[in-house]
Design brief:
Helices cover 39% and strands 12% of the residues. It is an alpha/beta fold and 1193 residues long. Strands 12-13-14-15-26-25 form a six-stranded mixed sheet. Strands 7, 8, 9, 10 and 11 form a five-stranded antiparallel sheet that branches. Strands 2-3-1-4 form a four-stranded antiparallel sheet. The protein is globular, with a radius of gyration of 33 Å. One of its GO terms (molecular function) is lyase activity. This is Pyruvate formate lyase-domain-containing protein. It comes from Cercophora scortea.
């Protein structure tokens, strides 16, 4: 009877009409029959409630009726078995079980109407009753309870999808029950002296919410919302539909209700038992749930609520009978963007979506479960355990038994085939890695490993090896970078069996006695074990789906699970035959890479899958792609208070060395990009567009499914069909900055010129690596390091020292590079520019030195055998990815703080050197910046002996200078003079980044020659791709910088990537409104569009009211190259939306923003990140400075 819904409509349409109506006022009657075993009594009750139903439908359409029966009573007279048992209700003093026979719940718009409805029928009910307990109930207009402090029932599952999943019985083997459910009632009295004795904050902690309805995540362990949360075998919370209403008043106090008539419904009676048990804990006399200490149940029962068909009463007639709580009725005016999951499910399931093409019922069912899974994180903290050592207990003390790569392959095998996927694995089950829904078309689970939170992997190094790896560069088994694009095209062509055969063929060429020492043989053995792990993973999931098929009561679900099980068995050794085969194989391998700590993207999915599309109807293919989207995005975190930090000193060594990096912005950075569109990888002079049917499937999935991963990247080009660009515009208005837009006509030539080994075909075959950096798909290794241009400017002003730490300890600051002349000796802006480039060149050389001196470090510590099987060049060369085995070796100096640097240089020129505008001297400006524009006066720059008056006077002078700096034109507004300077900065930065490798200074040349010797390849060459790389680190990177001359305060966030700088974090959010076309003139320079071949992302905010036709026009202009940039991201959200999302995260849980390299839920972000987004500039198609409101007026 507790089976999941078979079809959405049948379960809903089978329910009693009153069940789904809003409870505002009414009466709850618990009837105790005089002779329940009397047929006459039974028929009298049926006749009465049916007449009551007809009366309400005819005379009171705004009222509703729910009728329930004691399960044994209904079973006796209807000759059916209603499963029912209780061990908690009636045995615990907090809850009363008074064994009612019939429940009648009349809902109405007022007390008077409820009384009027029931009055003619009370005598008929009294005639067959021993007693009737009538409770007159009703809500305040503001729907608050407990003295008007709390909003009640706001998390009710009242959308059509959740109702059919969790509340209504789907029919099972007896269709008569379709639309029925179980009920639970409990009449609670409030202990007002106990409540009143608690402070307001204590009351909030008791409930788990504040008066505005926002959840209090850090006080969840004993709160009511935490204790009322129970999970099924899949680890998901199954909901109940609460329709409780307060009654009476305590002590004649109008604001204090006497109690609460709790009425709830669900499709599994044991769910009530589980919740009651959880509320009480192990000692019922001392309930764990603090709310239970101030309430007392005095009467109540369990009920069977028959379907409308069974009872022959009015049924739900359509979507209008499904109630949406007003709390969740907030949505964007553009019709494409949703603020919360509840409203999303209502609109999609009730055919109210503006796009006109909602996901299928299957997808909405899976999304409802995903949303529930996300919400659970508000009340439950899940911590992934540390995995055991490969050698077992004390394994790190034992001498190594095999080379490191072989042990890594063995660790991969054990992780994939045993620990994290075997049906009997306690670790896998406890951490949701075996979660499965019978309606899924794609199965498997990605672990909750992200760049910000870290990952867990199986250790395999000995204790001595661990120490040596730490000394070598803070490295360990967690150091795998991932962050590249696997060759999934090859995977789907040859299958796992083909990969194994190829590697086995290479291994067989090496004599067996030499295999223990031959590096290629060791590499091949590690690859074979890793692939054996993937095959074991598929085998385990074939077993899981087979078991799930046997548990299904719905034949269609059982057939689906059986079909997937057969598919997985086939894919263990054979290549895919169908579209669904190919998607499943890619996703399974993708899961395996993430499970072993190799966080990677999925590449050019449309090009990979398109050959498999024939034979699959497009609507079925859309369902498959949609299912993939849900699977990739199902593990998102929404509650930052429960985040657990798995990062070690060696985690994700992006340039061959470990160490700390900004984590807080990467909570949900799963490194799961999908790239679509773009040119086909041909060598023809005239490129050939590659957009196809799968491109459109992916664009529609990104628009309609509001997850944060995957992030979709669309490669646009000059002659791209407009239908794809129109769909991209609709997707952008849906929020989440998807798709992001690459321009192939700019980026492909830039990649072609990045290295002599890059052919035209390869330059056209790039894909996002997991953030946005373009990788030559399936053939690249990648290393990057940051070049902090803003620090180079600090060093220029401050004799080679940064000044954020200037003061009593570090004096003028941290000494970073050579001592350039002091500020007093810098006589002109041209002189300052020359010194800036000298300082910058040192940072570029330092960047490369770190990467090159660490090149290959991971190969004997943390190799990547599984990932190497899908990187072109590794298997043929017999080298791991970490040992230089890839075809292409991409090296990227990524500049940080470029926008702030440009603005600061411009400000210095205007404030110091330009005779028409100068206000200060360079030494005074430096002193001003060291003292944080007067907000942080410090010794020895301001002596305490001078007294507060002197400090205050200088501080005032500095704040006046800051006001002048803030008023200056800024880069990214299309201001010609600022843009000219910006081009100079970027042009010279790119030149330094390229020349340092192509015409290296002696220290870099020596490192390059050493790498060629190690590789035994005199032609070994790097693909040099300068880029912009703030990513999500705009808060962390800004924390390292002192105040900047553009008006930014010390340690405050910098601009995201190559975006215009946001307003200062210490000032109220008041973002500027720029014309989007004018703004992009700032980046319409070859230095940016061609020179920054690792892409130059500009992250732009647009208002939610940006007209669709204008946005489509803009996207088409960008595709044609009529506006600047080789990579744009457009985040659609208003400042008001951001503000409300920060105040009520649940109510705005689908608001997503671009974090620099990916998409994040705004509510999950820490306040400093939220504040930076609130202060970003907005871009419109209207004139500079004009907002939507001003335009309409």
């Amino acid at each position: 009877m507790a089976a999941k819904t078979e079809t959405l409509d049948e379960a809903l349409l089978g329910a009693q009409r009153g069940l789904l109506m809003r409870a505002v006022f009414g009466q709850v009657l618990t009837i105790y029959l005089e002779n329940p075993k009397s047929l006459k009594t039974w028929l009298a009750i049926l006749e009465t409630v049916r007449a009551l139903s007809v009366d309400i439908a005819a005379k009171h359409p705004d009222s509703g009726l729910i009728v329930g029966f004691a399960p044994k009573f209904w079973s006796h007279w209807e000759k059916c078995n209603i499963p029912f048992s209780t061990t908690v209700l009636g045995s615990a003093g907090k809850f009363a079980y008074t064994f009612g026979d019939v429940l009648i719940y009349v809902k109405s718009p007022s007390h008077e109407v409820a009384a009027q409805i029931l009055a003619p029928y009370i005598p008929r009910l009294e005639a067959v009753s021993e007693s009737i307990d009538t409770v007159v109930v009703g809500k305040r207009p503001d729907a608050r309870i407990m003295g008007g402090r709390y909003v009640d029932s706001i998390t009710n599952p009242n959308d059509p999808i959740s109702l059919t999943e969790d509340i209504l019985i789907g029919g099972g083997r007896d269709p008569r029950h379709r639309g029925a459910c179980f009920g639970f009632t409990q009449k609670f009295l409030f202990d007002w002296p106990g409540i009143a004795s608690q402070a307001a904050d204590t009351q909030d902690e008791m409930i788990g919410r504040n008066p505005a309805g926002a959840v209090l995540p850090q006080h969840a362990l004993v709160s009511h919302i935490h204790r009322a949360n129970i999970r099924d075998s899949n680890g998901d919370q199954r909901k109940i539909l609460r329709q409780a209403l307060p009654f009476g008043s305590s002590g004649n106090h109008a604001g204090r209700e006497e109690g609460l008539m709790f009425v709830a419904f669900c499709n599994d009676q044991q769910r009530f038992e589980g919740i009651l048990r959880n509320l009480l804990g192990d000692r019922p006399e001392r309930p764990v749930d603090k709310l239970m200490t101030v309430v007392q149940g005095v009467s109540g029962s369990y009920w069977y609520i028959p379907s409308a068909t069974e009872l022959k009463v009015a049924a739900v007639s359509g979507p209008d009978d499904v109630y949406e709580d007003p709390h969740w009725q907030v949505a964007s005016p553009n019709g494409f963007m949703f603020y919360n999951a509840q409203d999303y499910l209502h609109q999609m399931a009730e055919d109210r979506y503006k796009g006109g093409d909602p996901p299928s019922p299957r997808l909405l069912s899976l999304l409802a479960r995903t949303f529930s899974h996300w919400r659970d994180s508000w009340v439950k903290r899940q911590i992934f355990p540390r995995l055991p050592h490969l050698a077992g207990d004390g394994g790190d003390e034992k001498p190594p038994s095999a080379p490191v790569p072989v042990r890594k392959g063995q660790a991969n095998l054990k992780t994939l085939a045993d620990l994290l996927s075997h049906p009997a694995s306690a670790i896998a089950r406890a951490n949701g890695l075996l979660r499965i829904e019978a309606k899924e078309l794609i199965v498997g689970v990605i672990p909750d490993f992200t760049l910000g939170r870290g990952k867990e992997v199986m250790p395999y190094l000995s204790k001595d090896e661990t120490m040596a790896a730490w000394l070598k560069g803070q490295l360990n088994e967690w150091s795998a970078m991932g962050h590249v694009v696997p060759d999934y095209e090859r995977l789907v062509k040859v299958g796992l069996g083909g990969l194994v055969h190829e590697i086995r063929t290479h291994l067989d060429k090496i004599p067996e006695p030499e295999r223990g020492t031959d590096k290629s043989a060791v590499f091949y053995m590690s690859c074979l074990d890793s692939l054996k792990g993937v095959q074991g993973y598929l085998r385990n999931w074939a077993s899981i789906t087979e078991t799930r098929a046997s548990e299904c009561t719905n034949p269609a679900d059982a057939d689906n699970m059986t079909d997937i099980s057969n598919r997985l068995h086939h894919l263990i050794s054979h290549p895919p035959k169908t579209f669904q085969d190919a998607v499943q194989l890619i996703f399974s391998f993708h899961c395996c890479l993430h499970l072993v700590g190799e966080l990677t993207s999925l590449g050019r999915l449309d090009q990979i899958l398109h050959p498999f599309l024939p034979g699959t109807p497009l609507d079925r293919a859309q369902d498959i792609i949609d299912c993939l989207w849900v699977k990739i995005g199902e593990n998102a975190f929404v509650n930052r208070a429960f985040i657990y930090d798995y990062v070690t000193y060696g985690t994700t060594a992006v340039c061959g060395v470990g160490g700390n990096f900004p984590q807080g912005g990467g909570i949900n950075q799963w490194v799961q990009q999908i790239t679509v569109g773009g040119y086909k990888p041909t060598d023809n002079d005239v490129p050939e567009g590659g957009a196809n049917e799968v491109t459109m499937l992916c664009l529609k999935a990104a628009r309609r499914i509001p997850v944060n991963a995957p992030t979709l990247s669309l490669r646009v080009y000059r002659d791209m069909p407009e239908s794809f660009l129109d769909e991209a515009a609709r997707g952008i208005l849906a929020g989440g900055a998807q798709p992001i837009l690459y321009n192939d006509d700019k980026l492909c030539p830039a990649l072609l010129d990045s290295g002599p080994t890059v052919t035209r075909a390869w330059s056209r075959n790039y894909a996002a690596d997991g953030c946005y950096e373009p990788m030559l798909a399936g053939a690249s290794e990648f290393a990057f390091n940051n070049v902090a241009t803003l620090l180079a400017l600090e060093q220029t002003l401050n004799q080679g020292s940064t000044y954020a730490a200037a003061g009593p300890e570090q004096l003028r600051g941290n000494k970073a590079t050579f001592r350039s002349p002091p500020a007093s000796s810098i006589t002109s802006f041209a002189h300052l520019q020359s010194l800036f480039l000298d300082q910058l060149s040192w940072l570029v050389i330092q960047c490369y030195s770190t990467i090159l001196s660490s090149y290959g470090n991971l190969s004997d510590i943390c190799p990547s055998p599984l990932l190497s099987t899908l990187i072109d060049g590794c298997v043929t060369s017999g080298r791991d990815l970490t040992a230089g085995g890839a075809r292409f070796h991409i090296i990227a100096p990524l500049c940080v703080g470029m926008s702030n640097t440009i603005d600061s240089l411009y400000a210095i020129n205007k404030l110091v050197f330009d005779p028409a505008t100068a206000l200060t001297t360079l030494p005074e400006l430096l002193d001003c910046l060291i003292n944080d524009w007067g907000f942080g006066m410090r010794e020895p720059y301001e002596s305490t002996l001078s007294g507060p008056a002197d400090s205050s006077e200088r501080s005032l002078r500095y704040t006046e200078l800051r006001s002048a700096a803030l008023a200056l034109p800024k880069w990214g507004s299309g201001h010609a003079e600022v843009d000219f300077l910006g081009n100079w900065v970027v042009e010279n930065t790119v030149r330094l980044c390229v020349d340092t490798i192509r015409s290296p200074p002696p220290p870099i040349k020596a490192l390059l020659e050493a790498i060629k010797d190690t590789q035994n390849n005199p032609d070994f060459d790097f693909v040099v791709c300068p880029g912009i790389g703030t990513f999500e680190g705009y808060v962390g990177d800004g924390a390292q910088c002192g105040a900047s001359a553009d008006g930014r305060r010390s340690n405050m966030p910098i601009a995201s990537d190559l975006s215009p700088a946001p307003a200062p974090q210490d000032l109220p959010p008041a973002p500027a409104f720029r014309n989007i076309y004018q703004s992009l003139r700032s980046i319409a320079f070859p230095s940016i569009e061609h020179g920054l071949s690792n892409a130059s992302p500009v992250d732009m905010n647009i208002p939610e009211t940006f007209p669709l036709e204008d946005l489509s026009r803009f996207v088409k202009a960008y595709a044609k190259g009529e506006v600047g940039g080789n990579l744009l991201t457009l985040t659609c959200a208003d400042l008001d939306t951001y503000t409300k999302a920060g105040e009520d995260p649940e109510r705005y849980n689908l608001v997503r923003v671009r974090m620099g390299g990916w998409t994040e839920f705004y509510a999950t972000m820490f306040p400093a990140h939220q504040g930076q987004h609130q202060r970003r500039q907005f871009f419109t198609p209207w004139a500079e400075g004009v907002t939507q409101g001003e335009r309409e007026n």
